[in-house]
Amino acid sequence: MPVNRNALIRYRTIDNCLRNRYRKWTLEDLIDACSEALYEYEGIDKGVSRRTVQMDLQLMRSDKLGYNAPIIIRDKKFYTYEDPEYSITNIPLTEQDLGKLTEVAGILRQFKGFTHFHELNGMVQRLEDRIHTAKTKQAPVIDLEKNDKLKGLEHIDTLYQAIIKKRPVQLSYQSFKAREAQAFTFHPYFLKEYRNRWFVLGIKKRRQPVLLLALDRILEVGESHEPYLENDGLNLSEYFEHVVGVSVNPNDGPEEVELFVNRDNAPYVLTKPLHHSQQLVEQLGNGIIIRLQVQLNFELEREILGFGDCVKVLKPHKLKRRIHEKMHNAAEQYDKELNLSELEHSITKVKRRGYAVLENLYTSKEVGRILSSINRATENEERFRRSEDLFAIRSLLQEIPHLKHLLFNTNLCTLVREGFGADYFLTKAIYFDKPPRSNWYVTWHQDVPVNVKEKVEKEGFSGWTNKAGLVSVRPPLEYLQSAFTVRIHLDDTDEGNGALKVIPKTHFSILSDEEIAQTRNTAESKCCKVQKGGVHLMKPLTLHASSKTENHKHRRVIHLEFNNRELPEGLDWLEREVV
C-alpha cells in the first residue's frame, strides 16, 4: 500500500502525540497537531479533516503498514497508547527486511576499499550496526552524528535529481534576514554538507554571481520549464578548497593564517586538522604554532572562537583584531549582566533619595548599534539635519521605531519588570546630545509635564501647552510620584561634559519656583557620573540641572519615562509602549 509524504508526517505526528503521557489528546487535538505539522514541513495551510485523522488512526491500528498500534480511547474521549513504551519507530524489521539489508551491506562493503567510496564507510558501518541490533535485540554500538530536527532535508533528493538530470527548479526561498520569501528559478550544480547542514550551489541567471543556498531556508521546490544553464567555468572540485566551511568569496584568494594552540589542545588540532592545508610550524614548550592557507570567513572565526582562550591568532592582524573584538564582546555579555540584588538596592535608593546609578546595562556593541541606528535615521532626514547643532529627538520611538528592540535588551526589561513592576509601560522617549559645538546649560527644575495625544480638559490636569504640535499637561501629583525615569548613557559622563546634578529627597512634591530657588541655594547637590552603557535612575520630581560641556566631548543620553497609571478616559499617553 503506497503511503505519501503527507500521510507519513501525520502518522509520525500522531505517534509523537500519543507517546506524550503528560497530556490528554482528544481527536481535535490530534487534528490540530497534524495541521500544524503539515504547515511547518510542507507549507500546507488548509488543515486536516476529521475523517482523515480518523482513517489514520484506523490504519495505524491495522496490520496494513505493519504498525498494529495499540491505540485506545480513555474516558470515551482521550486517545493514547495502551503500551506506554510503544512507538511506530520501534517496529522490528522482518526476516525478509534483514535479509535484503544484509545483501545491501555486503555489496556496499565491497566498495569500502576504493578511494572514491571512502565516504561509504560510515553508511556501511551504520547499516551493519542496525542489522546486528535487529538480529540480536542488543543496543546499538554506533551512533553517528545526526540532527533529526534539521529542516530542509526533504529537498536533498529533489535537488540531487535536478543536478543529475540537468534541470532547473523553481524555489521559494527566505533567508534569515529577509522579511518574506522570494520565488525564482534556480540552476543547481552541487550539494554541500557542513556540520549536518546542507547547502546547494548554483545560479539564478547567466552572468550572475554563484549562490550558495541553505536547504533549511528553502520553503518549496517545484519544477521549472526554463532551459537549464549548464556550468561553464566553475570548478566545483576546487570551489571550497581554500575555506573552512562553506562561505566562499570567489574574488579572494587564500591568506596565511598562523595560530598558537596551547599544550592541552594541541593533540586535538594535530589529529583533527582545522583545514587540509594545516602545517605544523613550531613545537613550543607550552603549545604549538600551526599555519593554514585559507580565506578569512565566518566559519574560520567560529572554529577559532570555539577553542576560547586555548587558541590565539598570531596573524594576519585583521583576523587577530576581529577575534579580539568578538572575545571582548562575549566577555562583556557576562560582565554587563544586571545583578538583581544590586537592582533591588538601587530601586530602594531611588524611592528614598530620588536617584541612583546602575552601571553595565549595555555592552559597547549594543551602544554602538544604538548610535549607528540614530545616525542612519537622522543623516538623510531634513527635519533632523542641524549639522553640529542636533541636540534632541522627541518622541524617539515614533521617529525611529526599530530602536525599541535595541533599547529594550534583557537588562532593561529586567530593570523595568523586576524593579518598577510588571504593570509599568513607557510613556516618553527622548534623545539628547550635548555636542561640543552646540552647548547649553539647564537650570534647576523638576520634570512635571507629560505628553498626551490631544488636549481634553480633565479635573486635576492643568498648565496645557502645545509646542509645534506636542501637547503637554501637568498631571495630578500621584501620576508623577508613580513615574520612574531611566537615562541611558551612550558616552562616559562626568562634570566635564555636563553630567546631571541632582538634589536628593526633592521628589516627594511639586515645588514652586520660590521653593526651587530656596532649595538650590541651601541644599547640597550631587553630580551623577555614569559610564557609557550605564543608566541613571531618577524620579521625575527630583530637582536636577546640568552645566555646559567643558571638555569638548559629547554627552548623548536617551531619556525614558515609565508609569503604571492609565490616564482618565479621553486622555491618551502620546508614546505609550508596552515593555
TrEMBL record:
Residues 254-330 form the WCX domain. Pfam families: PhyH, WCX, WYL. GO terms for molecular function: 2-oxoglutarate-dependent dioxygenase activity. It comes from the Bacteria. Residues 154-221 form the WYL domain. This is WYL domain-containing protein. It comes from Pontibacter mangrovi.
